[in-house]
Amino acid sequence: MTFFSSLKTRLRVIGLAEGVSYLLLLFIAVPLKRLGGYPEAVEVLGPIHGLLFILYVLIVIQAKIEYGWSLGKLAMALVASILPGGTFYADHTFFRHLPANPD
């Protein structure tokens, strides 16, 4: 059994990575581009965040199917990905209380 074999672990790790990448993009890379004239910051961090965002959405959809979430829980998890710090809130209030693997 590997570290990422648990759906809960994958959801939490990717969610936290997506949240960190989003905050770095918003508060570091974009100001560096707009105010500092360094577009490379967004050119590097943008695709990384984009990949993590796609992985997060796919894992949330998998969790909805396997855990049998309601549409409301699915919507909460997806909305969390577009709010700065939202995935941290979702992890703290919801994801960490999930069983390791769905029944």
From TrEMBL:
The keyword Metal-binding does not apply. GO terms for cellular component: plasma membrane. It is found in: Cell membrane. Coiled coil: none annotated. The chain crosses the membrane at residues 12-32, 44-61, 73-90. The keyword Signal does not apply. Keywords: Cell membrane, Membrane, Transmembrane, Transmembrane helix. It holds the Pfam family DUF3817. Residues 9-93 form the DUF3817 domain. It is a multi-pass membrane protein. This is Integral membrane protein. The lineage of its organism: Bacteria, Pseudomonadati, Bacteroidota, Cytophagia, Cytophagales.
